[in-house]
């Protein structure tokens, strides 16, 4: 889930098993109501739309669609739940009245809203301790209300969690009055946790009717805290916990479950807020008992917090689009399979769209395959000639004047690997005559990936995914998380090629061995580096680099975060000579990502400065006369850094490769995903891409600063 500033975007639409009916009356799209955070201005109702339930685009440039100060007593509005009424044309929305910057987590009211067009809303506030003084004068939390229609009473039931005094949070219900401006009577407890529950706190209830029963998904704190399910034959009583097991597919804290049925099929989506990770997870089910994570199929250009999704008609979608969409955030996707999809850039201010394509795309006849939301049209259609430059496209939003955009197409070789990858280590294999890149698998919240893959190439431009070579959860006994920053070396031992793969796992360094560069790799069974060098108290034991001295044939391991350690590897290559461990004399620009090369009698030591989450992440270097000798740090020692003009940021954690038999070198590094990485905040630090540019030296042996490019390098002959 990625927040876009409105400058650049790309979302790729995929067709799934559930179809859409655009006849106008049946639901064929989706409205997502959400808020965005705890800071001032973030506690407000936002809308996003989707035509398939998987790919969502924020409306109104991801700004609030309702002024929180106009509808709340606190100035903040959270946890919006939206419901279509039984008449099919009235909409009900409820939300928490809370402004965290001033109130913390204590509040007293909820907000009830009503609309007939999804645009204009009537609202009222229900303050529980003021309205029901006799029963709930000591209430200090009123959270996450939701609404459901009760067929038995023909009324709308509002249910929510409350906390009284020192009691745990409990889920209550009450019926709304006829005009949906208040509650008819004092709330009553809806759900009673099992007696054996060690912690009875329950919040964020979410009820759906399925197979003749009411299913109450809720966040429970007992046992393994997470989304639990209770079921009843009746709406207002009798809920029994199905299992003490979590219904969500996470191990981290979650809250704010929202479940909805996909249009025109029998599949359900259960989504929830990973509030400690800053993420949102989507799962899919047909039976509401077992759920499968489908995060890889989901895209959003915003970061939602606790929201709900409601199916809408094509007519309603068009009204929302025409009201809240504009040319600064055009709801258009480009879906050509020849595109580098993550790197498409829409610049509203310049009225340009930049389309990077893969090698071999025909510029003379290229069709971006624009896909538009209902209410938006464009021309021209079909393949166009981009070989002579940009092509003018006209886009039209219903109810607004059309605008022209210049659309350009470029064959960009950067990034060289598809998707999110980082910390690339590159190898030329004498055994196979091919090049290989071993990256960190990126795109996981808080660097939480646990698998390593490898990619091969004959020419440094066209890369083949050779698959997973190590799965920490299956292949490694001593660590199962944080698979980061690997490196590899090819050694000929007793006439046979061996490959020694050093990798970070759980902030330790391990080693695995294979007979081929693509594996299979077998872990040594224990961590190679699991403690800090003598004298070091800070930093992490991460980012290994392996270097074989061409003069002696000896191999060395370098590692560290906040310090650069070095040690000679023993002949078995799976252990170090601890007596040789030393700290290299780097300066205070050193952060991590050591990498060593040898050229014309000089040993070059490279490292990354700053933080991988920083746009200013860069590479510096020093030189030495031996693999563990004293470092000489040049005054001007930058290898590569950001280029704001090209919107290339966070160029760091590199490796390098020499073309066999030539004094021809290339730098392999990662950058923020472009263009959206710079808008993602800290998440940009785990949404990175691998790039290659030429590495050159001047006559005195100094490294010339590398200019990062979009075009990358030409394929080797």
From TrEMBL:
<dbReference type="GO" id="GO:0045493">
    <property type="term" value="P:xylan catabolic process"/>
</dbReference>
<dbReference type="GO" id="GO:0004553">
    <property type="term" value="F:hydrolase activity, hydrolyzing O-glycosyl compounds"/>
</dbReference>
<dbReference type="InterPro" id="IPR006710">
    <property type="entry name" value="Glyco_hydro_43"/>
</dbReference>
<keyword id="KW-0858">Xylan degradation</keyword>
<dbReference type="InterPro" id="IPR052176">
    <property type="entry name" value="Glycosyl_Hydrlase_43_Enz"/>
</dbReference>
<keyword id="KW-0119">Carbohydrate metabolism</keyword>
<comment type="similarity">
    <text>Belongs to the glycosyl hydrolase 43 family.</text>
</comment>
<keyword id="KW-0378">Hydrolase</keyword>
<dbReference type="Pfam" id="PF04616">
    <property type="entry name" value="Glyco_hydro_43"/>
</dbReference>
<protein>
    <submittedName>
        <fullName>Beta-xylosidase</fullName>
    </submittedName>
</protein>
<dbReference type="InterPro" id="IPR023296">
    <property type="entry name" value="Glyco_hydro_beta-prop_sf"/>
</dbReference>
<keyword id="KW-0624">Polysaccharide degradation</keyword>
<keyword id="KW-0326">Glycosidase</keyword>
